[in-house]
Design brief:
Helix content is about 35%, strand content about 35%. The protein has 6 helices and 9 strands. A 7-stranded mixed sheet has the order 5-6-4-3-7-8-9, sandwiched between helices. GO terms for molecular function: adenine binding; adenine phosphoribosyltransferase activity; AMP binding.
Length: about 180
């Protein structure tokens, strides 16, 4: 069984959550089993170990991107920076607001989180509409960093986020695609 199929078998689908008609893709089972968690992390680490793909820093999106990003950064022996929801970081920040289905949200990054020229891997658990990852990309670029790739466990291409991110010039790497499911 390939890695994608193996991981897909450990993602729980919760129907009608958080709203009727939504098929929520729950990644927590991937984290609960140590063997599955290792397969997941290794899939990212092996990709980003190669010379051309190796980042200077990993940035994780609030909140499940912290789980993945911190472990991947540790394994790559690079730093980790959190991109948080507004009001959660104690130091001077830059912020980016993005649109949600109903309303908007804002994410922040410490102004000293990355340096100009840093190559950054931007990581989250899932790409849906792409708003959070796009905001993270813009924040990192405001500080002069280059986002070498956006990474996530799950892509929900029917929601249009991955297409929008690629159209904006962000290469993406995802492990499981739930299109048409």
């Amino acid at each position: 069984m390939d890695t994608s199929a193996y991981l897909r078998n450990h993602i729980r689908t919760v129907p009608d959550w958080p709203a009727p008609g939504v098929q929520f893709r729950d990644i927590t089972p991937l984290l609960q089993d140590p063997q599955v968690f290792r397969v997941l992390i290794d899939a990212f680490v092996h990709r980003y170990m190669s010379r051309g793909m190796r980042p200077d820093v990993v940035a994780g999106l609030d909140a499940r991107g912290f789980i993945l990003g911190a472990v991947v950064a540790y394994e790559l022996n690079v730093g980790f920076v959190p991109i948080r929801k507004k009001g959660k970081l104690p130091f001077t920040t830059v912020e980016e607001t993005y649109e949600l289905e109903y309303g908007s949200a804002t994410v922040e990054l410490h102004t000293d989180a990355v340096k100009a020229g840093d190559r950054v891997l931007l990581i989250d658990d899932l790409i849906a509409t792409g708003g959070t990852m796009m905001a993270g990309k813009k924040l990192l670029e405001k500080l002069g960093a280059t986002v070498v790739e956006g990474a996530a466990i799950v892509d929900l291409p029917e929601l249009g986020g991955s297409g929008k991110l690629r159209a904006a010039g962000l290469p993406l790497f995802t492990l499981v695609d739930f299109e048409g499911h």
